């Protein structure tokens, strides 16, 4: 299983935006050092909190500071851009990162963004589908693309460069509450970013949405790849559950009230205690590594077949030190449980423990003999010997 972050980002109004962008880049570098697999960076143009306007610019800067982590847009709002330019920019990034770029696609999360560009909310999902049609055809590099809609036109269009990745870089479609995202993913055989996994009731709909996507894929002769399915949830990890709750309680409340309620006009997650309700429902995972592990296991059970990855919905609920510590604890104690890297060390330790008398006993004799052969007294601590699994003088 892959792990990473979905970085909107969320920075409260009043915080220095220049420093906030710098922290985001530092975070990506930290995750790269810790062995995280991927980071998805958002695109927003209003409301003051989610301040990255161009994920492509951010990805280019992050790529120069990292070595291994995959970098994707989370997401590129397709109705805001001509599809030829989206394809061209990501092909260029694919070459510049030597295959470390991914394209996340969506209709646009903030209605205020679309409003400023004169795009009607009821048109956004249709426009995303039309753009995906054009982009996937362009990236195939099979023939010039000619098509016309009410908002873009392609005339014998072809890419300047073929993708660096073979046959192309990964593409994933965002899905929150409606089935439009998973239907688009199925129609074009793309990956899926399930933001709904971290929303009230969203985990219970994961398997249902996936079946819808598989049925849509079958209609178009495509396959919906489970290894391309990522679940996005709120997470914070500390050494103990109580410490984790203390870390995030105040920051979560500020974000919920100031941004989602007062700025976007949404009720506080339709609850007076969204953090507590999220913890009970399993859509928010806050606690010790063992608590987080159990939460991920339950979340994956809702998929009825598994998924390819789990992403932090990156937030700043805790202070900087505790936030970075959370990612470190997660990398040390949670990720290995799902990546198969603990099996051989555990087997090796068990083998040595079960055979310690026969394996290490002769070694002690050889060490004592080395002293006597040199005409020296055997040290007192070396006079102890292993006998029937017990230490005797």
TrEMBL record:
Boundaries of every Luciferase-like domain copy: 1-303
GO CC list: cytosol
Protein's UniProt keywords contain Chloroplast: no
Pfam families for the chain: Bac_luciferase (PF00296)
InterPro entries registered for this protein in UniProt: Bact_Lucif_Oxidored, Luciferase-like_dom, Luciferase-like_sf
Oxidoreductase among keywords: yes
GO molecular function: monooxygenase activity; oxidoreductase activity, acting on paired donors, with incorporation or reduction of molecular oxygen
Keyword annotations of the record: Flavoprotein, Monooxygenase, Oxidoreductase
Record family assignment: Belongs to the bacterial luciferase oxidoreductase family.
PANTHER family noted in UniProt: BLL0895 PROTEIN, LUCIFERASE-LIKE MONOOXYGENASE
Protein name as it appears in the record: LLM class flavin-dependent oxidoreductase
């Amino acid at each position: 299983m892959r792990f990473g972050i979905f970085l909107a980002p969320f920075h409260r109004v009043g915080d220095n935006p220049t420093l906030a962008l710098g922290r985001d880049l530092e975070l990506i570098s930290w995750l790269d050092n810790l062995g995280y697999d991927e980071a998805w960076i958002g695109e927003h143009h209003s409301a003051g909190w989610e301040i990255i306007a161009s994920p492509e610019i951010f990805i280019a800067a992050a790529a120069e500071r990292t070595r291994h982590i995959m970098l994707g847009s989370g997401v590129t709002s397709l109705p805001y851009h001509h599809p030829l330019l989206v394809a061209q920019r990501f092909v260029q990034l694919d070459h510049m990162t030597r295959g470390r770029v991914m394209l996340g696609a969506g209709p646009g999360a903030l209605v205020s963004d679309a409003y400023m560009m004169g795009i009607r909310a009821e048109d956004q999902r249709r426009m995303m589908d039309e753009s995906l049609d054009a982009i996937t055809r362009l990236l195939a590099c099979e023939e010039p693309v000619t098509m016309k809609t009410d908002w873009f036109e392609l005339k014998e269009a072809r890419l300047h460069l073929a993708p660096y990745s073979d046959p192309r870089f990964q593409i994933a479609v965002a899905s929150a509450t409606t089935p439009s995202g998973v239907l688009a993913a199925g129609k074009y055989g793309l990956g899926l970013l399930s933001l709904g996994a971290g929303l009230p009731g969203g985990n219970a709909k994961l398997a249902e949405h996936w079946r819808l996507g598989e049925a849509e894929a079958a209609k178009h002769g495509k396959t919906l790849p489970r290894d391309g399915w990522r679940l996005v949830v709120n997470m914070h990890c500390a050494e103990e559950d109580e410490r984790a709750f203390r870390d995030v309680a105040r920051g979560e409340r500020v974000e919920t009230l100031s941004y989602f309620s007062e700025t976007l006009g949404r009720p506080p997650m339709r609850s007076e205690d969204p953090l507590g309700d999220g913890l009970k429902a399993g859509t928010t995972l806050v606690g010790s590594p063992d608590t987080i592990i159990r939460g991920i296991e339950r979340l994956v059970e809702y998929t009825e077949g598994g998924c390819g990855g789990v992403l932090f919905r990156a937030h700043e609920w805790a202070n900087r030190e505790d936030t970075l510590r959370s990612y470190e604890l997660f990398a040390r104690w949670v990720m290995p449980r799902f990546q198969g890297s603990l099996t051989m060390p555990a087997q090796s330790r068990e083998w040595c423990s079960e055979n310690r008398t026969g394996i290490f006993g002769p070694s002690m004799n050889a060490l004592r003999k080395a002293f006597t052969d040199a005409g020296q007294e055997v040290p007192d601590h070396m006079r102890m010997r292993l006998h029937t699994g017990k230490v005797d003088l």
